[in-house]
Amino acid sequence: MLSEQIPSEILRTHTLNNHKYIVSMRTRMRRAGFVSRAEAGKILARLLKYYDNMPNTSVLSINSAPLPLANEIATKLNLPLDLFLIRTLKIDGWTVGAITDRTEEPLLKDQIIRGCNISQETLDQIIRQERFQLDMQRTLFQPPNIPFSTSEDATILLTIDGIQTGQSARAAITLLRQLGFKGKIVLVAGVIGSDAQKMFKRDAVDVIAIKGPQSVGTVASWYENNEELTNEQIKNFLGHNRYSR
């Protein structure tokens, strides 16, 4: 059973370029950092107690894998939970952008596209393919798609199970800003690599993570339970927390 006390290994607060990180004090640990994403979510919920019942605040899961983590946070803090569906655009091993079901406008890395001499036809083709996958996921998962607040006082707890390179999280943050969200973004993760931390120095976000090793490796290696969620489980998570403020 998970102790009601916050483990001593996560009580150290580290500030990097005015961004607050909660990172592990241990350098040695068992192979997996957590039994499950739900376990990590319970710990994170206690770290995020400040946001308990906070108006104009929501929990947003980057894709479906972190939903057990995000659900624990949303449930314990009495906040709405939603899903932010994102697909990265990759061509010949290069990540050239990302898309979300919230807008038809893609997020593109123009410099890489020009440098790799990627044709518009090739780009359009990959966007169509990934858009098709997004539409399928949206139909299967039925996320509430709560409209993002236009208030600068709003807060989104942007959750992900782990951050290795930070590309997905940065894409999510950029897309949120592109969609007009002007409030506070708190990036919440079970584990974040130290190199990824540096990437967020330019992003106006707070970062809360339980573990902050120099090397993350694969995110899955930090969780003992890596069973893929079923469509029904995903819908249950979202349906259970389907309300807005």
What does this 3D model show about the protein?
By secondary structure, this protein is α/β, with parallel strands linked by helices. Helix content is 32%, strand content 24%. It has 7 helices and 10 strands. Strands 4-3-8-9-10 form a 5-stranded parallel β-sheet, sandwiched between helices. A 3-stranded antiparallel β-sheet has the order 5-6-7, with helices on both faces. The chain has a two-stranded antiparallel sheet with strand order 1-2. The longest helix has 22 residues, at 120-141. The protein is globular, with a radius of gyration of 18 Å. The chain starts with 11 loop residues before the first strand and ends in a 5-residue tail after the last helix. The relative contact order is 0.20.
Overview in brief:
Keywords: Glycosyltransferase, Transferase. One of its GO terms (molecular function) is glycosyltransferase activity. By secondary structure, this protein is an alpha/beta fold.
Terminal-residue CA separation: 33 Å
Structural class determined from secondary elements: alpha/beta
Strand-and-helix sequence, N→C?
EEHEHEEEEHHEHEHEH
The chain-level mean pLDDT equals: 85
How many H/I helices? Answer: 7
Low-confidence stretches: 1-31
Quaternary state of the chains: single chain
Percent of residues in β-strands: 15-25%
> Which value, in Å, is the CA radius of gyration?
18 Å
